[in-house]
Design brief:
By secondary structure, the protein is mostly helical. It has one domain (8-371). It has helices spanning 2-8, 13-33, 35-41, 48-69, 73-77, 79-95, 118-136, 144-162, 167-183, 188-212, 218-230, 236-251, 275-309, 313-337, 356-402, and strands at residues 98-100, 103-108, 115-117. A three-stranded antiparallel β-sheet has the order 1-2-3. Strand 2 and strand 3 form a beta hairpin.
Length: 403
């Protein structure tokens, strides 16, 4: 049994343990936070979201298992193609969107009835592309024109296609990309220059969009920022944020116990964007907030540890990029829930109920495990070689001593 398990699930054991923790919290939190919604929208079936999430987690485990057995070099060779496909999907989303909750961020897969949020796919595609470009151009990082053309232009295209309907995700992707470039030794002065250009571009874009179109999300962005700064409570986003704060405040240190959440009946996104607030309400600071926070921090440290063991640049940048993406999104989700950031609509990776986000997170964890599998296998082979080199010497001494 141990041999079968070890042959199927390879790579960093700590990361595998974190995946188990993610899945346990996901099942418990999604079921508890969505009982009322499931009862009202699915004919009294209170276990609808539980069954849906359980099936999704099984599928995610399949994705992680398959992905971590793939050679990571395949991502490098297909980086440009993957990014190209992601950009095409973003364009299709702008032209033929599916509108949910006053936002057009999804497209429908023909003949299936399933929807995908293309911005989630674009995040991973961009990280793979940046990892490849950084690994191939370590000697050209001081060439500003070249770096702008091969690094920032693709990032700008992706963010520009996402920004009209999802400014927070576009900003997160841009900042995440700059962070990955910083890790990849990009000159800091270039990063500040690109950041300044991005801020100016966002302001100009918002002014133009507001001027040429009446039906746009500029007013939503402006309203959320103004209400967040002023502390006003006169919008749907503020209503959600306030209900999340109530859930957190009433959860206290040890929570109300699983299944006893009250705010789940008031929070429209209780099983996705604000699931962290429900976790705290039911499990408290000690059994809810801190364990979830530490799980993501441990993932960050394990990602750094795996990257440091890589002998080549691409797998190291790939692991760091995917880890930064998962942890950054988790921190934003938790910061929104506790009121440190305006409402952004980011899910909690591997815990919130969802489809595209779960698949993307699973692929990312699988790719991280894939790199760790190669690193660990090489380390084990070196240990075997070292032990074989030591054994003949020991044997010779033994024979000489008894000769």
């Amino acid at each position: 049994m141990k041999t079968v398990f070890g042959g199927l699930f390879k790579g960093d054991r700590v990361v595998w343990g974190l995946i188990v923790v993610f899945m346990i919290y996901s099942l418990l939190a999604v079921y508890s936070s969505s009982v009322s919604v499931a009862f009202s929208r699915h004919g009294g079936d209170t276990t609808f979201f539980l069954k849906s999430q359980a099936m999704m987690l099984i599928f995610c485990l399949f994705i992680i298992t398959v992905t971590h057995h793939l050679p990571y070099r395949i991502y490098s060779s297909l980086a440009g193609f993957i990014l190209f496909v992601a950009i095409i999907l973003l364009i299709i989303t702008l032209i033929f969107p599916v509108r949910i909750n006053e936002a057009s961020r999804w497209i429908m897969i023909p003949g299936t009835g399933f929807m995908i949020q293309t911005s989630d796919l674009a995040k991973v595609a961009l990280i793979i592309y940046l990892a490849r470009m950084l690994s191939q151009n370590q000697h050209n990082l001081k060439d500003f024109k070249l770096m702008t053309r091969i690094m920032i232009v693709p990032v700008a295209i992706v963010c520009a296609l996402i920004m009209p309907e999802n400014l927070s995700t576009a900003v997160m992707i841009f900042c995440m990309s700059l962070l990955i470039m910083f890790i990849g030794r990009m000159p800091v002065k270039y990063l500040f220059a690109w950041m300044g250009l991005a801020i100016a571009a966002i302001v100009v874009f918002a002014l133009l969009l507001d001027a040429v179109s009446e039906n746009n999300r500029v007013s939503v962005w402006k309203g959320r920022l103004e209400n967040y700064v002023k502390g006003e409570n006169d919008s749907d986003a503020d209503y959600q944020a306030n209900q999340a704060k109530i859930a957190i405040a009433t959860g206290g240190l040890i929570g109300k116990a699983p299944g006893n959440s009250v705010q789940r009946n008031m929070l429209p996104q209780s099983n996705s964007d604000f699931i962290f607030a429900i976790i705290i309400e039911e499990y408290g600071l000690i059994f809810g907030a801190l364990p979830v926070l530490f799980v993501y921090l441990i993932l960050l440290f394990r990602g750094i540890a795996i990257a440091r063991k890589c002998e080549t640049a691409f797998p190291a940048f790939l692991v760091l990029g995917l880890t930064v993406m998962l942890v950054t999104q988790a921190m934003i989700n938790m910061a929104v829930a506790v009121g440190l950031l305006p409402v952004t609509g980011q899910t909690l990776p591997m815990i919130s109920w969802g489809r595209t986000s779960m698949v993307v997170s699973s692929f990312s964890l699988g790719a991280i495990l894939g790199v760790s599998r190669v690193v660990r296998a090489k380390a084990q082979s070196e240990e075997v070689i070292d032990s074989e080199q030591e054994d003949p010497g020991d044997g010779l001494i033994y024979e000489t001593a008894n000769g």
